[in-house]
UniProtKB/TrEMBL annotation:
Domain CN hydrolase residues, every copy: 2-272
Family under the similarity heading: Belongs to the carbon-nitrogen hydrolase superfamily. NIT1/NIT2 family.
Gene Ontology CC annotation, any one: cytoplasm
Keywords tagged on the record: Cytoplasm, Hydrolase
CDD domains registered for this protein in UniProt: nit (cd07572)
Name of this protein: CN hydrolase domain-containing protein
Length: 297
């Protein structure tokens, strides 16, 4: 059994401020003896609009957010307190003027070892709810990242809105995932209705542990610079409720929403023997019917 942590935070548009928050969460996870910490989507910053995101994005080698995390992990490693971090960030695209919404796996020695780029972009207009067009600033990824070994088990990766597309989760299970992560910045309106439902559904239909690190609270309430004339800032509020769910669909741990926007952490043991017994009891992966549906997952 391996103890993992989910860190919940409320990113602003300051990479430096958000690094302070990430380092605090890493330090808490280390002191609680966790081997892995999962941080949310867009932990490096939540920009006020598409143009702002393109303006503040930095390559990882120049991002004060990433550099600070790497320094912290190296320091803990040198003290014999190893922890691995998964973290959602933005990166410039080499081929367009849009940014990439990516998830980085950073080793206990501070090395970026894996990278997933969000495939499904959140372009929606909900009546009396959020209007968001992620593709205005973000370039979609085109590949599923093969699940990789971690101290807690084989980890599959998807980001936020990807959770609504069961095929990516099913594919990750087929490719060997034991844990699937969905770092997120869910909206309030959709979060209330769907967040826990989607997480539990993906856990039950893949028989994987599901780890959902979330942004929580109101972003950019104190803008770090005044808006230019004619510039508008999208009011963003994230749902929070970060969770760790087991393959039976039980919510093992959930972050508090008593103080929306405040950092929080929750922990659970990943138990691969339990996972194996769930899979043996209900052997879904030997019972699929590609002959009926014309494709396999
Ligand atoms: O890149 C950033 O700045 C942060 N990215 C996000 O917040 C993304 C795109 S706007 N949010 C979601 O995908 C929410 C999905 C959601 O809420 C749902 O599926 O209901």
């Amino acid at each position: 059994m391996v103890l993992v942590a989910v860190g919940q935070m409320c990113s602003s548009s300051s990479l430096v401020e958000n690094a302070v928050s990430a380092v605090r969460l890493i330090t808490r996870a280390v002191s609680l003896n966790c081997k892995v910490l999962f941080l949310p989507e867009a932990a490096d910053y939540i920009a006020r609009n598409a143009a702002h995101s393109k303006e503040i994005v930095k390559p990882v080698t120049e991002s004060p957010f990433i550099i600070e995390i790497q320094k912290t992990l190296k320091k803990f490693h040198a003290e014999g307190k190893s922890i691995f971090v998964s973290v959602g960030v933005h990166e410039p695209s080499e081929t367009s003027d849009r940014v990439k919404n990516t998830l980085l796996w950073i080793s206990d020695k501070g090395k970026i070892e894996q990278r997933y780029q969000k495939v499904h972009l959140f372009d929606v207009e909900i009546k009396n709810g959020p209007i968001l067009k992620e593709s205005a600033s973000v370039e979609p990824g085109n590949e599923v990242l093969k699940p990789f070994e971690t101290p807690a088990g084989k980890l599959g990766s998807a980001i936020c809105y990807d959770i609504r597309f069961p095929e990516i989760a099913l594919r990750l299970r087929t490719l060997g995932a034991e844990i699937i992560q969905f770092p997120s910045a869910f909206t309030m309106r959709t979060g209330v209705a769907h967040w826990a439902l989607l997480g539990r559904a993906r856990a039950v239909d893949t028989q994987c542990y599901v780890v959902m690190a979330a942004q929580s609270g109101s972003h950019n309430t104190s803008a770090d610079k005044p808006l230019a004339e004619g510039e508008t800032a999208t009011k963003r509020e994230s749902y929070g409720h970060s969770m760790i769910i087991d393959p039976w669909g039980t919510v093992l741990a959930e972050c508090s929403d008593i103080l929306p926007g405040k950092e929080d952490i929750c922990l659970a043991d990943i138990d691969l023997e339990r996972l194996e017994s769930f899979r043996q009891n209900i052997p879904l992966w030997t019972q699929r019917r590609p002959d009926v549906f014309g494709y396999d997952v």
